[in-house]
Amino acid sequence: MNVLMEEWKGQTIVVLGLARSGVAVARLLFHLGAKVTVNDRKPRAESPEAEELENLGIPVICGEHPENLIHEGVDLLVKNPGIPYSASPVQQALVYGIPVVTEVEIAYRVASSPIIGITGSNGKTTTTTLVGRMLKKGKVPSVVAGNIGRALAEVAPELKANEWLVAELSSFQLKGVQTFRPRIGALLNIVPAHMDYHGDLNDYTASKEKLFSNQQPSDIAVLNWDSPECRSVAKKIKAQILWFSRHEPVDQGIYFAEGRVMVKMANDAEAWELMPVSDIHMPGVHQENGLAAAAIALAAGCPKEAIRQELATFTGVEHRLEFVGVKRGARWYNDSKATNAKATIAAIESFHEPVVLIAGGLDRGVDFRECIPAFRKLKGIVAYGEAADVLLARAKDAGIPEQEQYHARRVEEAVFAAANLVQSGDVALLSPACASWDQHTSFEERGSIFKQAVHIL
């Protein structure tokens, strides 16, 4: 454990929000000697996690945000990443000058191990999972935690000094860090997302940039050369930069060239070949995630052969261009994690075969005009949910014949409609371009329903 753990003893700390990370950070801070109070607006009956904390002697207040929750005697507010900064306890804390952080900051201060932080609008989970697999294959001590696996605050105290903590980090989590400094930080891409939370693209980008704000020249930043937004962020970074690119050589990093995966690290006099591009098992845009993971793993000391083996065998993670099966002669893919237009465009462009797209979900006021060029490549489209009308309007703009369009109510109906549009050799792709919350609790639930419907075709 980090010597900084002594800083929590006797402090008065409010943890806002239960869920997995809230429970973990409350329990950790309590064991470190802090006076912890947990608050969640959900009713007590909907907060089964509260009992575990109460059994430890931690007060848990459910059902409301009491007016006296935040006061001058509070030393720190640790909030669930998804709770907006407009929430009354957060606003009160800011008025009092009380620091507001997320679990990531606490885990960093407690952990004695080096951290790999991975963020981006799209591809975080795929890249994080692949890094973990590469390090495990290469026998590099490491733990994958956070949004994947156990909570960061649960894992941090257990880590050894030579053990990498590999963490997928969202903009919500990074917005609430102060001293957090990963030894290796990776930014995969930036596209407009979560504007309802951040308010504008500037705040969203600034939150992502916090991954690098405390890095020093001895640290490493891994960035996407093919992303203009990443190139812009790079101008502010003090750390050594490793680039990854599918489209052109880079001075330092990993890239595709003439059908080969080439690498040039800081100590390399010349670039060297890692493997043929054709040996990478992942399709399309996920090859970009593979390059990012390889750069991160190399920086963490992973043997080349372990990286080669994982790139050649890894097929992706659930709900990210996940192959579901062959039905009606077509290959069906579940890309339910594609919750914005850029992710759906990338998914469409991953295939050379005719694609029937299933898209739709929560209407956030997006016009999807940027999808028109990609939609021109589609054989057909089935749109459902709140955003169906605007997606079908863009399909019309793209010239998709009316008989190749269908307006469905739900995902299950969309699957059966798509089955009537596909032919042998086609691809049927669920890549919604929208959040799932108009009809589902999560993109995972949406993807599971899609797969069940495909399997009974």
Mean pLDDT: 92
Shape: globular
CATH topology of the largest domain: UDP-N-acetylmuramoyl-L-alanine:D-glutamate ligase
Number of strands: 20
H/I helix tally: 17
CATH architecture of the largest domain: 3-Layer(aba) Sandwich
Distance between the termini: 53 Å
Total domains: 3
Q: Tell me the name of the CATH class of the largest domain.
A: Alpha Beta
| Poorly predicted runs | none
Please estimate the helix content. 25-40%
Overview of this structure, please?
Pfam families: Mur_ligase_C, Mur_ligase_M, MurD-like_N. It is a single chain. This protein is α/β, with parallel strands linked by helices. The protein folds into three domains: 9-101, NAD(P)-binding Rossmann-like Domain (Rossmann fold, 3-Layer(aba) Sandwich); 105-313, 3-Layer(aba) Sandwich (UDP-N-acetylmuramoyl-L-alanine:D-glutamate ligase), CATH 3.40.1190.10; 322-455, Protein-Tyrosine Phosphatase, Chain A, CATH 3.90.190.20. 32% of the residues lie in helices and 21% in strands. It has helices at 19-31, 50-56, 88-96, 103-110, 124-137, 152-155, 171-175, 195-198, 201-209, 228-234, 286-299, 304-313, 341-348, 372-375, 388-397, 411-419, 443-455, and strands spanning 12-16, 35-40, 60-62, 76-79, 100-101, 115-119, 142-146, 164-168, 184-187, 220-224, 240-245, 253-257, 260-264, 272-276, 322-327, 330-334, 355-360, 378-384, 405-408, 427-430. The protein has a nine-stranded mixed sheet with strand order 7-8-6-9-10-11-12-13-14, sandwiched between helices. A six-stranded mixed sheet has the order 15-16-20-17-18-19, with helices on both faces. Helix 5 crosses helix 11 (286-299), helix 5 (124-137) packs across helix 12 (304-313) and helix 16 (411-419) crosses helix 17. It is globular, with a radius of gyration of 23 Å. The mean pLDDT is 92.
